[in-house]
Amino acid sequence: MVNFQPNFSHIYVERDAFDFELTDLTLSKFPKATVIKIGHYKDVFNRPGQDFQIQKSSMKLILAIKTEPFLYPASDMVQEFDTPNVYYNTPILNCLYNCDYCYLQGMYPSGNVVVFVNEYDFMDAINLKLNELDDPLKPMVVSISYNTDIMAMENIIPMTSRWIKFVDTQENLKIEVRTKSALFSSINNNKPSKNVILSWTLSPDSICQQNEPTAPPLQRRLGALKEAMANGWQVRICFDPVLLVEGWYDIYTRFFDEVFNKIDCDKLLDITLGVFRMNKDYFNRIRKRESRSELFYANYSIEKGTVIPDKKVRYNALDQLEDKIAQFFPRDKILVWR
Asked: What is the pLDDT of residue 305?
């Protein structure tokens, strides 16, 4: 049996990143960590011969300074918001969790976590973009946890709270915080903001156990989002990805019954619904590494460079699941990724 060191036993810090507040905050949380000075984060993060899954068993932390670009136009994998002004950024690369279906294991060569400590450069880029929006009459929306679960890191690096404080001063800006975390309490000292959308990904218990084993279980996520709604935050539920495993209809319809019997739907902002899908190159890279997950050996189609269940299969599944959700929640507030 291999004995792995605890997560963040080693922290790599770019030599120019030492003079940042987030660096000081982070290092203070790990006084026993071995701190290693490096020239550039890619010297560690992008080096050849790494094993993503082994590294996830003993993640190292890399503190770095990001250079431009600080803001990216939304891809077709980012939530739609009824505005053309949708973007994402990457204050953190990689995630504390290690879900079977996560595209990050095909996107990055390393299972370690990179935190960019020059947070104000990200915020300045947003301020500049606010002056040149495609449609200035509609808000700008930024997904800040596109390549990570930023709230899951909050007890280590309080980035979510700092972003909430930033966006709360803006007139035409919203941020989305996508999460599986149960750490709502870590941001609850902030006043609820109309400019913040807290988006929880929920999955049935059996999927949590089989495919999301390192993330909080369903009941803890439900408890966190219920607390957020009770405290006046805007909450979105993401039933995404739906995994079309054997018995999927019974699994997910029972799951929806459980969720909607436990929450106040009148306080819910909206819902997204989508099946498992992934960039073809990321998918092939993961399968080439001999992924143990059966997800990567099922039958799929390829559409516009995306690996996705066959159109007829997924449309049938999504139609049935949308009909079930619509028994509890207005259909016009359900966004379905088809």
From this structure: 96
Burial class (CB in 10 A: 0-12, 13-18, 19+), 247: exposed
**What is d(CA 3, CA 1) in angstroms, rounded to the nearest whole number?**
6
In terms of DSSP bridges, do strands 61-64 and 306-308 run parallel, antiparallel, or are they unpaired? unpaired
pLDDT of residue 83: 85
CB neighbour list of residue 263: distance below 8 Å, 6 or more residues apart: 222, 225, 226, 229
Q: CB neighbours of 89 closer than 8 A, spacing ≥ 6?
A: 70, 71, 72, 122, 125, 126, 142, 143, 144, 146
- pTM for this entry: 0.96
* Total residues found in the chain within this entry: 338
The residues near 170 (Cβ < 8 Å, ≥ 6 apart) are 130, 195
What does the domain layout of the chain look like in residue ranges? Answer: 63-337
Which residues on adjacent β-strands are paired with residue 185? none
CA dist 145 and 179 (Å) reads 8
- Angle of CA points 184, 129, 160, to nearest 5°: 15
- For the record, the structure tokens of 334 come out as 């359900």
Which string of DSSP letters, residue by residue, matches 91-158? SEES-S---TT-THHHH-S--SEEEE--HHHHHHHHHHHHTT-SSTTS-EEEES-TTS-TGGGTTTS-
Rounded distance between C-alpha atoms, residue 107 and residue 281, angstroms: 8
CATH of domain 63-337: 3.80.30.30
